[in-house]
Amino acid sequence: MNIDKAVLAFAGAMVLVALALSIWVSPWFHLLTAFVGLNMMQASLTGFCPAAMIFKRLGCAPGAVFK
C-alpha cells in the first residue's frame, strides 16, 4: 500500500468512526469529522499532511501525491 492510499483509507476510517461516535456517544464528535475534512482540504492546497509523514516513517511506499 502506498502513502496516498493509506492516507485516504485513514481519513475514511476516521470519518466513519466519528460518525458512529456522534450517533452513539455525543454529537460533539461531528467536530472530529470537520477536523478531518479541513485537514484534507489544507493538504490538497499545501501538500503538507501529518498522516502522510507518519505513514512514510512506518515504511509505506511513496505515491503520486505524497512522496
UniProtKB/TrEMBL annotation:
Positions in coiled-coil regions: none
Keyword Transmembrane helix: yes
A Pfam family that the UniProt record links to this protein: YgaP-like_TM
The organism of origin for this protein: Phreatobacter aquaticus
Cited InterPro entries: YgaP-like_TM
Annotated protein name in UniProt: DUF2892 domain-containing protein
Keyword set, alphabetical order: Membrane, Transmembrane, Transmembrane helix
Presence of the UniProt keyword Endoplasmic reticulum in the record: no
Membrane-spanning segments: 7-25, 31-55
The Inner membrane protein YgaP-like transmembrane domain, residue ranges: 2-60
